[in-house]
Amino acid sequence: MEKARFQKTPFHFAQYIALKLFCALFGLLPYKLAVWMGRTATGAVRFVMPKRFNRSVYDIRRAFPDMSEAQARGTALESWRNMGGILAEFIKLTKMSPEEFKKHSRIIGAEKMLNAQNHTGGIIHIGHFTNWEAFGLAGAVYGVDKAVLAQRVDNPYVDEETNRLRNIFTGRTFYSNYEDKPFFACMRWLKKKKMLGILIDQNAGSSEVWIPFMGRTAAFSPITALLSIKMQVPVFPVRVWREKDGTIVSEVMDPVYPPKEYSMDNVRKFTKILVGYYEDWLRENPASWLWAHNRWKREAEGNAYLAAHPEERV
Fold it and tell me: Among the residues of the chain, which ranges form H helices?
């Protein structure tokens, strides 16, 4: 893969310094004040990026046609505010001791991952809900030896700092858009009977399967289903929400076992099963999801492809 885009530049370094100053400032604030400031800041960004915000409103209304315009805008606003809350929580949580951390972020069902660790291994199936980064940190705090499959950001300084914080309690990262063979790196990790976290609710730019999502065709990466079937490891869906007092709670669901035989038809069907978890969580709490991401960017392309290949519909 072309790596020139990840070269370090003076502009990238300036962005990195700004990020470090921002993190230092938030690190000095009380936890709840930092979260409030983060939420307020990204909520206000909608005035700077009105087209992107209106796109969120449009997608929400398509997914929930019974919602009024006002309800959809309120849902979009809460989703955008959540982005700032995630950042503030992430900064504050990385500075805590494990004991203090558990007062703000806890896991229900961590024993399911710990039991799989060193026995079968497994894949953590989590989406861009509430605060997925907090769960990644919490997994390490609870003793899970995990890696995550992520996308590298263009600014290498920022990427290195984000990766350092993401794995501050132990862990490692594989890059889907940077490493030459991320699939095989993930396979080697799973062969060691370890846990691998993957988010597949982003638009897939290549190697996609076309799956209906909230009533519209979306491009999903098949990597979770592929790895699970090839390695015959279970998938653990993880749902994340906040309690009224701001505590971040992650619940590890019972494992989902893959089909015994590999075929692209089984990959598509298993991916659809996993996507169903996202749909259920989204319908229950629409504002918890990252609506700022253009999830259906390739909808027209997907519809055209399925029209020409009806046998691939699931």
Answer: 10-28, 31-44, 50-63, 69-93, 98-104, 110-116, 132-141, 156-166, 182-191, 223-231, 264-284, 299-308
